[in-house]
């Protein structure tokens, strides 16, 4: 499996992993187990996905059956917005580790640079974006406070690597001014309709690895009714013709467009066949011209935008 080496720890992060958002809870343990059996080693979870316990069950079964050892896996999770205050970060990381049934995360990310009012996990978990009254309640926690608490997770051995998600460059630049441990990974929405080239270049200059989420663009949002009616990337002529020329599928071409440039991907699938198909995206190369023609599909079309939740948290404005 191709990897990217993370700054500070020199740990190797697989360039291709499995995304756990919207993985059906009732079949999640089997999906994770079978994904490991098929060859996946990186799993991208989050408190917000509501399936950490089931994901952990799949992992534990795979380890018990001798398919892998814990150290062969790279498990990522994320801190949710309601737990940004310093007194909650450690407790939540502990809770999430307990749900997974493991004692450290390979990577722990701040899910969004948005602090929301605390919701006691005993009251509601995952808490999502809204209070009991259906409204969004902001909290006054700064990113610096949260990041300092994230660094303490490294000191406590709960997270080997730490990073951020959905951050833009000016906020990262500020974070780098006070960071004791620099963020090793930035996870962002990135696909041909939102190629994020300036942010990718910024990360390269700072040695921050980039993970692309929603590699298939609108496809991941169809099931939520949030695809903005954008044309499917999987059926575009520009992508299909490259798939035909390389004897690969459109999905494999979209994934390779990222990984060939050192950008990690974490496609999600509830289908075993598609999950195996996605795994087959690493063993071929696209020409420079093919890479460029896919990058040229950029429309600056963002699908995962908190502005849809509340205009006060329009972090990409
Ligand atoms: N940090 C963040 O804020 C954030 C936000 C969004 C996502 N993420 C992470 O990124 C992961 C991936 O993003 P995503 O779930 O939005 O979308 P995605 O992986 O781009 O797309 C998933 C969609 O594509 C379909 N699909 C998967 N493989 C396919 C194939 N080979 N051919 C055709 N269709 C295929 C899936 O359907 P089936 O399931 O039916 O196959 C699903 O509808 C998430 O699971 C999560 O781990 C992070």
From TrEMBL:
Active site residues per record: 49
UniProt-listed InterPro entries: AKR, Aldo/ket_reductase_CS, NAD(P)_OxRdtase_dom_sf, NADP_OxRdtase_dom
Site keyed Lowers pKa of active site Tyr: positions: 78
Superkingdom field: Eukaryota
Keyword Oxidoreductase: yes
Location of the NADP-dependent oxidoreductase domain: 16-297
Annotated keywords: Oxidoreductase
Binding site for substrate: 111
Transmembrane spans: none
GO molecular function: oxidoreductase activity
Family indicated by similarity: Belongs to the aldo/keto reductase family.
Protein name per the record: Aldo/keto reductase
Organism: Guyanagaster necrorhizus
């Amino acid at each position: 499996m191709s990897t990217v080496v993370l700054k500070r720890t020199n740990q190797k992060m697989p360039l291709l992993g499995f995304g756990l958002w919207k993985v059906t809870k009732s079949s999640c343990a089997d999906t994770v187990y079978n994904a490991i059996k098929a060859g996946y080693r990186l799993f991208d979870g989050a408190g917000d996905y509501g399936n950490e316990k089931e994901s952990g069950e799949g992992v534990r079964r795979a380890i018990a059956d001798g398919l892998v050892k814990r150290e062969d896996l790279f498990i990522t999770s994320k801190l949710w917005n309601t737990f940004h205050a310093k007194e909650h970060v450690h407790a939540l990381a502990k809770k999430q580790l307990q749900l997974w049934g493991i004692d450290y995360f390979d990577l722990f990310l701040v899910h969004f640079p948005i602090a929301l009012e605390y919701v006691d996990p005993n009251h509601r978990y995952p808490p999502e974006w809204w209070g009991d009254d259906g409204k969004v309640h902001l909290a006054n926690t700064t990113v610096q406070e949260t990041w300092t608490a994230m660094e303490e997770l490294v000191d406590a051995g709960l997270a080997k690597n730490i990073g951020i998600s959905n951050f833009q460059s000016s906020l990262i630049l500020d974070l780098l001014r006070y960071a004791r441990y620099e963020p090793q990974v930035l996870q962002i929405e990135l696909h041909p309709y939102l190629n994020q080239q300036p942010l990718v270049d910024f990360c390269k200059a700072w040695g921050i690895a980039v993970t692309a989420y929603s590699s298939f663009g609108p496809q991941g949002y169809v099931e939520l009714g949030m695809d903005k009616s954008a044309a499917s990337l999987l059926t575009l002529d520009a992508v299909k013709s490259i798939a035909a020329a390389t004897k690969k599928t459109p999905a494999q071409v979209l994934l390779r467009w990222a990984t060939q440039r050192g950008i990690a991907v974490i496609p999600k699938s509830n289908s075993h066949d598609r999950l195996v198909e996605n795994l087959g995206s690493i063993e071929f190369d696209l020409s420079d011209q093919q890479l460029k023609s896919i990058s040229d599909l950029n429309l600056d079309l963002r699908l995962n935008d908190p502005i849809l939740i509340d205009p006060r948290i329009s972090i990409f404005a």
